[in-house]
Write a structure and sequence with these properties.
This protein has 521 residues and is of the alpha/beta class. Helix 9 packs antiparallel against helix 11 and helix 10 packs parallel to helix 11. The protein contains 22 helices and 14 strands.
C-alpha cells in the first residue's frame, strides 16, 4: 500500500512538472474558437499520466462547443476542503482552468442528516440479499453498486445484510445521487468520459447521468486488443440500459452475421484459437496479467486412478459481482463455488479448483477456507497450464462466468457456467437455468454435450478482434512508436516523462485526425 502511495505521489509530481510550461498545446488552442452551450463530463484520471494528458487534449478539442467539467470522487479531499488535489496537482489544475476553461469538481460530499435518516430506514427494511439487490433511490438502481463497493473495500467474499457497516454504503449512495443532481441541475450534459462503470463512485454516476438523458457514455482504453500501447485509441460506448463495463455481448451472434467473408473470418478465428491454446500465443484481450494459461512449461501430471476428475475455474471473489446482466446465486461467485462443493461432496469424483490467475491475492485465503469446509477439494497452483486438464482427461469444467468456457469446449472438455458471460449469445455459452439443472449436471458431468465449433469461432472473432459496434477506435501510432511509449512508460521516472512528451507531440501531429474522430463520437 505504501509503495502504491509513493508511486502515485511521484506521478503527480511528473504531471505537475510537465504542465509547468503553460504553452503546451498552444498552437491548437489558438485555432479553436469557443461556442459553449452544452457540457461534457471528463473524469480527472490521475492513475495514469498519459491518460491525464490525453484527456486534456480531448477537452481542448471539445471546448469549442462544450463547457468542460473535470470530476473526481474523493472522501480524503473532501476532508481537506477539496484543496488537497489542487495543491498536489497545482500546475495541471491551473492548465485545465486557464487553457481548457474547465471546472474541477469533487462529486463526493458528506451526507446530510436527512440522508443519514433515509439510509437508516432503507437499511432496516433489508432482510435478505435480494432486498439489497433491488434497492433503488429516485428510481435509480443502487443495490448492486453498494454490494460491489462493500465487497471490494471491506474485502468480503459476499455481502452480510446484518453488517451495520452496510448502512454507511447506503447513505453514501443516497448522498451521491443527491449531490450529482444538485451539481448537474440545469446543465445539459452531452457526453461522459469515465474509467469504470462499477462500484458506487462510477456506476451510480453512469446511472444518474442516464436518468438525465446522457446517452453518450464512454470508457477510454489506451492499450489495444493486441496489448499494444496507444497503437489505437479505443473508446467503449456503454449500453444505456445496463451500463456494463463490456460490449453488448448478447448481440455478438447478430454482430457476426452482419460481417462479410464469413468463411475466411471463421478460418482466421480458428487459427487464432489454435495458436492461443496449442501454440502458446497469449491473448492480451483475454488475459490481463503475465501468466500464460496455456504454457507448455506448466503442464503437470495428475495421479492416475479410475476416478473422474472435475475442475472448478474460480473467478476473483472480490471483483466480479454484477459484472454481467444476471446470474444464479445473486451474481456471487463465492456462493456459487460453495454451493457447487455442497453438491460435489455427494459424488465420487475428484474435485479440483484453480484460482483465477489475475485475481486478488486474498482469493487464495478464501479458497483455503473452502478447503477446511470441503476437505476433498484439491487446490491447484494458479499458474498451472490449462493444457494439463486435457492431458489428464478431465471430464468437465465449471465456472461462474469465465471466458475460458469456449477454450475448454474447444479442447473437448464439457463446460458449464451459472452466470451470463461474454459467450452468452451462443448455445455453448448459455448459463445453467436453475439450481435443479445444476444439480443434475454435477451428478453426471461426464455427459457429453453437442457443440457447434463454428459458434466458438464466431465468438472468438467478435471478442478477440473487438468487432462489436460498441467499440469506437482510431489508429494512433505505429508499432515501433507504441513499443517506445510502453518502454519509457514502464521505465524510470525520467523515461516516463519522455513518454509524456512523445505522446503530446504525437497528439499535436495527429490533431485533425483525432478531432474528426472525436466529433463522430
Amino acid at each position: 500500500m505504501k509503495l502504491f502511495f509513493f508511486k502515485r505521489f511521484f506521478e503527480l509530481i511528473l504531471i505537475n512538472v510537465f504542465f509547468l510550461r503553460d504553452n503546451r498545446f498552444n498552437e491548437i488552442i489558438k485555432n479553436i474558437k469557443e461556442r459553449k452551450k452544452n457540457y461534457i463530463l471528463i473524469e480527472l484520471y490521475l492513475s495514469n499520466v498519459l491518460v491525464s494528458i490525453f484527456y486534456v487534449f480531448v477537452s481542448i478539442i471539445y471546448k469549442k462547443n462544450f463547457k468542460i467539467i473535470f470530476f473526481y470522487y474523493s472522501k480524503v479531499d473532501n476532508f481537506f476542503g477539496n484543496k488537497l488535489i489542487k495543491i498536489l496537482c497545482f500546475s495541471y489544475i491551473k492548465f485545465l482552468k486557464n487553457k481548457c476553461h474547465a471546472e474541477i469538481i469533487n462529486l463526493y460530499r458528506n451526507p446530510e442528516i436527512y440522508e443519514i435518516k433515509n439510509g437508516n430506514r432503507k437499511y432496516n427494511k433489508i432482510n435478505k440479499v435480494e432486498d439489497l439487490i433491488n434497492l433503488k433511490y429516485k428510481k435509480i438502481e443502487i443495490g448492486k453498486y453498494i454490494i460491489q463497493s462493500y465487497c471490494r473495500e471491506l474485502w468480503k467474499e459476499h455481502v452480510d445484510v446484518k453488517d451495520q457497516r452496510l448502512e454507511k454504503y447506503i447513505v453514501e449512495a443516497i448522498a451521491y445521487i443527491n449531490n450529482i443532481n444538485t451539481i448537474l441541475k440545469n446543465k445539459k450534459i452531452k457526453k461522459l468520459f469515465i474509467s469504470h462503470s462499477v462500484f458506487i463512485r462510477y456506476g451510480i454516476l453512469c446511472r444518474t447521468c442516464n436518468s438525465l438523458n446522457v446517452s453518450n457514455i464512454y470508457i477510454f482504453y489506451p492499450t489495444s486488443r493486441l496489448g499494444k500501447f496507444y497503437k489505437s485509441l479505443d473508446f467503449l460506448k456503454l449500453d444505456s440500459k445496463h451500463h456494463l463495463q463490456i460490449e453488448r455481448y448478447w448481440n455478438f451472434n447478430k454482430d457476426f452475421n452482419k460481417l462479410k467473408s464469413k468463411s475466411k473470418i471463421l478460418n482466421h478465428s480458428k487459427k487464432n484459437l489454435q495458436n492461443r491454446i496449442y501454440g502458446e500465443k497469449v491473448s492480451k484481450h483475454f488475459i490481463k496479467g503475465n501468466i500464460n494459461p496455456y504454457s507448455k512449461n506448466k503442464i503437470i501430471k495428475f495421479e492416475k486412478n479410475n476416478k473422474i476428475k472435475i475442475l472448478i475455474m474460480a473467478t476473483c471473489f472480490y471483483d466480479r459481482a454484477f459484472f454481467y446482466r444476471n446470474a444464479l446465486f445473486n451474481s456471487n461467485s463465492y456462493l456459487f463455488t460453495k454451493e457447487i462443493l455442497n453438491l460435489a461432496k455427494y459424488t465420487n469424483f475428484e474435485w479440483y479448483i484453480k484460482p483465477h490467475p489475475d485475481g486478488h491475492i486474498k482469493n487464495i485465503g478464501s479458497i483455503k477456507s473452502l478447503k477446511k469446509d470441503f476437505p476433498f477439494l484439491k487446490i491447484l497452483p494458479k499458474n498451472i497450464s490449462n493444457l494439463s486438464f486435457k492431458k489428464n482427461n478431465f471430464k468437465c469444467m465449471f465456472s461462474f462466468d469465465g471466458s475460458a468456457l469456449h477454450e475448454f469446449i474447444y479442447m473437448g472438455i464439457p463446460s458449464y457456467c451459472v452466470g451470463e458471460n461474454k459467450q452468452s449469445a451462443f448455445n455453448f455459452g448459455k448459463p445453467v437455468k436453475n439450481f435443479r439443472e445444476l444439480k443434475e449436471i454435477v451428478s453426471k458431468p461426464y455427459k457429453k454435450k453437442k457443440y457447434d465449433l463454428k459458434d466458438i469461432y464466431k465468438f472468438n472473432y467478435i471478442y478477440e478482434y473487438q468487432k462489436s459496434p460498441d467499440w469506437k477506435s482510431i489508429d494512433f501510432v505505429s508499432d515501433e512508436l507504441s513499443l517506445i511509449l510502453l518502454k519509457n512508460f514502464n521505465g524510470s521516472y525520467y523515461n516516463k516523462y519522455k513518454s509524456m512528451v512523445i505522446l503530446s507531440q504525437n497528439l499535436n501531429i495527429r490533431f485533425h485526425k483525432i478531432k474528426k474522430f472525436l466529433k463522430k463520437i
